[in-house]
Amino acid sequence: MFALVDCNSFFASCEKVFRPDLEGKPVVVLSNNDGCVVARSAEAKRLVAMQATLYSVHDLVKQGKLHVFSSNPVLYRDMSRRVIQTLQHFSPEVEQYSIDEAFLGLHGFTKADLSDYGQRIRTTVKQWTGIPVSVGIAKTKTLAKLAAHEAKRYPSVNGVLNFETLADPDAVLASIDVGEVWGIGRNLKAKLNTMGIKTVLHLKQANERIIKKKFGVLGLRTVLELRGTPCFPMEPVAAPVTMRIVSRSFGHLVTELSDIKEAVATYTTRCAEKLRADGLVAGHFTVSMRTSYYRPENQYSAARSVELDPPTNDTAVLIHEAMRLAESAFTPGYEYLKAKVIATELSPSDEVQGSLFAASVDTEKRDKLMAAMDTLNRKLSPDAVKFGAMGLKPTWAMRSEYFSQRYTTHWGEIPTVKVWQTPQEQSTRLSYRTVLAGQPQNREI
After folding, report:
1. Residue 108: per-residue pLDDT
2. Pick the residue with more confidence: 374 or 443?
3. pLDDT at residue 356 in the model
4. What's the CA gap between 118 and 435, in Å, rounded?
5. Distance of alpha carbon 37 from alpha carbon 272, whole angstroms
6. Phi, psi of 439 (to 5 degrees)
7. Residue 427: which pLDDT band, with cuts at 50, 70 and 90?
8. What is the 3-state secondary structure (H, E, C) of the chain?
9. pLDDT given for residue 101 in this prediction
10. Which of 104, 248, 295, 359 could make an SS bond with 3 (beta carbons 3.0 to 4.6 A apart)?
C-alpha cells in the first residue's frame, strides 16, 4: 500500500502560515520577476486563472480583494523540509517526489485503519507545520496520486481518500480525465484522446498490447498500476544529481556587459554553493544568455562552455571561467532578458582524480576558504562575504515587490509577537507562594 501526501496550494499556504490575518482570504504567488500567477489558494481559484499576469489582477489587488506575494523559494524549501520531517514519523519509507508531494510506503500496516491513519497524518502535518495536505491511499503509486487528487475535489472525504474503501472505484475513475494520470502530459493526452481514451477508466481497460506498442513499457506499467499491480517501487533514496542550473530573468532588459557579468557571477556563486552542499564538483560549466522570446525583433541567444580540469566547486575558479564565457557569448546591441549557468559532469568531491597538466593548487587550503565563506554566510546573512565580481548594488536584479519575510531561516526576519494589555490588565497581579530555602515567601508576577 502507498500513500501520496500532497500539500494544498503549497506556495500560498506557506505565505498564510505566518499571516493568520489571511485565513480564508484569496492569496496568490507570482512567478520569478513578478510575472504571472503560479499558485492560488482555494479562495483565489474562484477569482484568478492560473498564469494570469500581475497586470490583469492589479485592480483586485488595489481593491484589497486579492493578496499577492512574490516567489519566496527560501521559505518554501524550508517549509517543505519540515513537512517531510513530519511525514517521517509515520513511515520508515518516505520518498519526496516534489517540493509539495511525497509518497509513503504503508506496506505491513495491516492492523491500522489506513483511512484513520491518513487523517492522523493530515492533522499532524497541519498542527506541526501549519500546511494543509490531502492524502491519497491505494495499492499503487499511480492510484494513490489519483486518490489525493480526488481528495481535494470532494469535501465530504475530509482530505483523505482510500481507494480500497470505495464501493465502486471504477465509477470514480470514469469521472477523471485521463490527463490527470501520473506521467501523462499534454501531448500524450492528445494521442490517447485520438484513440478514444478520454478517462482514466478507458486507460485502465485499454488493450495491453496496443498500449505497449504505442507508448512502450512505461505506458504498459501505467495501465497495470491502474489495475492495482504495483510497477513503481518506493525510491526513498534520491537519484544522484547530474546537473545544477541557476537561471534568473533580469528585473529589466539589460544591454551592458558589466551588468551581465555581475548577474553571471551571482548565479555562479549560487551554483558553487549548491555543489559544495551536495559534496559534488563540476567537470563542465556553461554560461548562456538570451533576449525575450516575446519580442520578435532583435532575437539573440548564445551559450559558451568550458571543460574544468580538474573538476571543481571553488567559487573563485568558477567565476573566473564564467567571466570569460560571458564575454565570449555577449554581443552588443541586444536587450538581454535572462542569463543561466549550468554545471554538469558532476562527481563526488572526494573522488576527484588529479591532473598532470593542471597548475598546482593547494586544494586543502582552498576547500577551507570555501567552507569558511559558507559558514559565515550561513550564520550572518547571504552574501555577507562575497566576491567583488557580484557587484555592490545590482540594478539588474529580479523584481520582487511583494516579497514576504523568510520567517524560518533568517534571524532578522523571525516573526515578532506583540501583546497589548489594557490599563486594568496591567494593574492586576497574581500572587503565589513558593518555598525558598524552606521558608514560605510571597511573590508577585
Report:
1. 83
2. 374
3. 64
4. 48
5. 30
6. -115, 130
7. low
8. CEEEEEECCHHHHHHHHCCHHHCCCCEEEECHHHCEEEEECCCHHHCCCCCCECHHHHHHHHCCCCEEECCCHHHHHHHHHHHHHHHCCCCCCEEEEECCEEEEECCCCCCCCHHHHHHHHHHHHHHHHCCCEEEEEECCHHHHHHHHHHHHHCHHHCCEEEHHHCCCHHHHHHCCEHHHCCCCCHHHHHHHHHCCCCEHHHHHCCCHHHHHHHHHHHHHHHHHHHCCCCCCCCCCCCCCCCCEEEEEEEEEEECCHHHHHHHHHHHHHHHHHHHHHHCEEEEEEEEEEEECCCCCCCCCEEEEEEEEEEEECCHHHHHHHHHHHHHHHCCCCCCEEEEEEEEEEEEEHHHCCCCCCCCCCCHHHHHHHHHHHHHHHHHCCCCCCCCHHHCCCCCCCCCCCCCCCCCCCCHHHCCCCCCCCCHHHHHCCCEEEEEECCEEEEEEC
9. 96
10. 104
Q: What is the pLDDT of residue 382?
A: 80
The whole-model pTM stands at 0.80
Lookup result for grid cell 524549501: 77
Q: Which of 269, 260, 267, 253 is nearest to 302 (CA)?
A: 260
Among 304, 293, 292, which Cα is nearest to 254's?
292
Query: How far apart are alpha carbons 289 and 25 in whole angstroms?
Result: 39
